[in-house]
Amino acid sequence: MEKKNIAIACQGGGTHAVFTWGVLTRILEIKQEWDSQADGGDTFDITSISGTSAGALCALATWYGLVPNRVDRDCGTSGKAIERLNFLWTTFGASTPIERSQNATVRTLMMLKEQGAPFPDANPYLGYGDVGQATLSLLGARQQYLSFPELLDSLCPHFQDIDWPKVAEANCRILAGAIEVISGNFEVFDSDRNLEEMKLRSLSDEKDEVLRWQMRRPISLEGVAASGTLPEVLRAERIENSEFPTCTSGGIEKRDGYYWDGLYSQNPPVKQFLDGNSKEEKPHEIWVIRINPQEMRRPDKLPGLEDIRDRENELAGNISLHQELDHILRINKGIGQSKASHPFFQSKRVVEVRTIKMTRETAWKLRATSKLDRDPEHFEELRREGRKVADAWLEKWRSCGDAFDSYPNDARYREGED
Q1: pTM, to two decimals
Q2: Secondary structure (3-state) at 353
Q3: Cα–Cα distance, 188 to 51 (Å, whole number)
Q4: What tens digit of pLDDT does each residue of 122-153 get?
Q5: 47 touches 4 (CB < 8 A)
Q6: Which of 121-125, 203-207, 287-291 has the highest mean pLDDT?
Q7: 3-state secondary structure 292-307
Q8: Of the candidates 224, 301, 286, 293, the residue with the CA atom closest to the CA atom of residue 259
Q9: Which of 1, 8, 101, 351 is most exposed, with the fewest beta carbons within 10 Å of its own?
Q10: Whose CA is closest to 404, among 12, 38, 41?
Q11: What's the pLDDT score for residue 305?
């Protein structure tokens, strides 16, 4: 029985990432089943997981459950990761009467605006949002529903008690992408950075400590909140007393960092999966859980303004992902052509990239406006689809082996494919 090291990349896309909830929980359940079978066939270990925006929430819930914790002894298991994913989305969904009413109102206004209704844009930096949140709280809305920090504190109640020495031994990494607004830096909040600062892991040759426009910071709840900060809805996430490189060689500026959604940088981080001084430290495969479809339905008529905005949203969510995946394909091609004889390729391995995506029917009917819908029925429909897709996908992965579809072909919908 071969066990492959798998890195999972969770694309962001608002509440459409509930699909990822279904996929991840089924992956974890099936891994438990396969691990219990002595000679059932190939299986896998999850060695890294990344995410952006709502994908980062899924990645955090999974990683927190999988890594050891000094206080919560249930952590460090697939079962705990499943429990945390379930907690995340059942808590984030609208459940109290006022939450359901607020969500229904927002959904209606978004649909009307999509059809061209002249509603003014909301400014998260004006005081109306604060008044609205205070009113919702008084009427019975939960703080976990209203606030990312409250939600993440509830999701990871013993984050400060993560057993980092055992995390280093377990080899389980998380990456969350965000962009720093003032500098324009692409930033990744990375658990390996925590290990490096604690002297539990050495810096690899492929991890630059400081690049001018790309930075790695320790994983934190604030970093994951930064990854999900939509600028049209929320004020930039502020992380105090952060260090930034200046244009002077070796110069450092200390100031507060202000962060927006990782959609504007990496959606999700992928290239960091290839860090490592040896082939053994790199994954055998990267599984991309895709939220934004590669292709759109061919229109029967000229698209309307709402169709254009939908497609703009999907394209923006994919552009950085495609660049990073194509970079991996070029490295794979270089390894094959050089037979790993070139010094650049000697520490590298061919990494298969595979796509887990919604059915075409679902992907093409979802609108960008529904990415803010927190209706539990909307959640349940996408969760069920994620579980069903993961079931069929993993069965094919195990039975087909190396012949199983891979990127870029599997990012598209074939004719006749559901």
Answers
A1: 0.94
A2: strand
A3: 10
A4: 778 877 778 888 999 999 999 999 999 999 99
A5: no
A6: 287-291
A7: CCCCCCCCCCCCCHHH
A8: 224
A9: 1
A10: 41
A11: 74
